[in-house]
Amino acid sequence: MGYDTALRGYTSKRIEEIESADILVGIPCYYNERTIAHVIQMVTHGLAKHYKDQRSVILIADGGSTDDTREVAKEFEIKPWQEKITSIYRGHPGKGSAFRSLFEAAKRLKVKACMVVDSDLRSITSDWVKYLLEPILEKDYQFVCPVYSRYKYDGTITNNIVYNLTRALYGLRIRQPIGGEFAFVGDLAAYYIEQDVWDTDVARYGIDIWMTTNAITNNLKICQSNLGVKIHDAKDPAESLGPMFRQVVHTLFVLMEQHEAEWKAVKGSRTVPTLGLQKFEEPEPVRVDLGRLVTEFKTGFRQFKGLYQDIFCPECFQELKRCAGEAKTKFVMPVSTWVQVLYETAATFHHWTHNRTQLVNLVTPLYLGRVASFINQTKNMSSSQAEEVVEEQAQVFEDHKDYLIQIWDKKTK
Q: 3-class SS at 413?
């Protein structure tokens, strides 16, 4: 059962009054009273500095925060020639529903370009507006993904799963397919609204990978824009990434089924043009709890050992079993094992019609183990050296794509 709009009445009325615009900047938020003012400030300055002659609307799409996020957003003074709407979106709670409201606003305002930034950013500058919008407004690109300088332990879901799979499956080296900051041509909003996904995981945390994958499979002209350092309210993977992990991975696997014909035909990968900042800046460290990651892996292994034995090939299972006996500082899960884990899980997901959520839950401890392994491997490296390890890992995923196709086609429950 779909719903016809993510916009509430008053938001709709404001859009009607504004009539049309050239640029829409969306800021999805939920309990961000500490950071939202800074994000709006940088956006209003950036629009004034780089696009003063364009009609701009800033739309804050809130998930029903009960702190002062919306009050802070409403009271923040923007430039008098810009418009600002502060709204609560309708639909499933989650970032995807916020995006749905932005797509609707973009379509109704007939904007040329739309950009979205997260509301928990502390490192956003006014130039991010230019870096994201310029490729759309001046260089004929249709979809812009971000590239950041991130601390080596930030973005663990991207580094260990999303980048590897997106690159190996679809053949484009998009480094941050779930980055949080995007820009796209206005016409794309109508296409996104029409897709029947708004009652699924996409409406929660799956939206970023869904948008990026659709941009790739529709052969849009895609580039990346380097925004410099990303400093946000980073989360320790051992503590709070569970729901996000499950929804992103679930969405990735569902997209694999939908786009099977496209990814099976892709061999190798190519780079994507990168614009924006030209330098790498060393970001501030993110704290992670190595001991907890390893404990979660070991607990998960004990709990799901029988299921792991059923799902994974003997060689992969033996390696996971060996990992379960390792001390935390010696804990290493080989890349080849991690590739088998993800590829065999994807193939199993494809052949299971029920209990798919349970399957994704089973892999969560293994992912935490892989993160622990990456931490041990890179503990004496700078973030740019650790980046080379991420690239090497992605290449292993690419090299074993034939294995994925083979088990995808024949693996039965």
A: coil
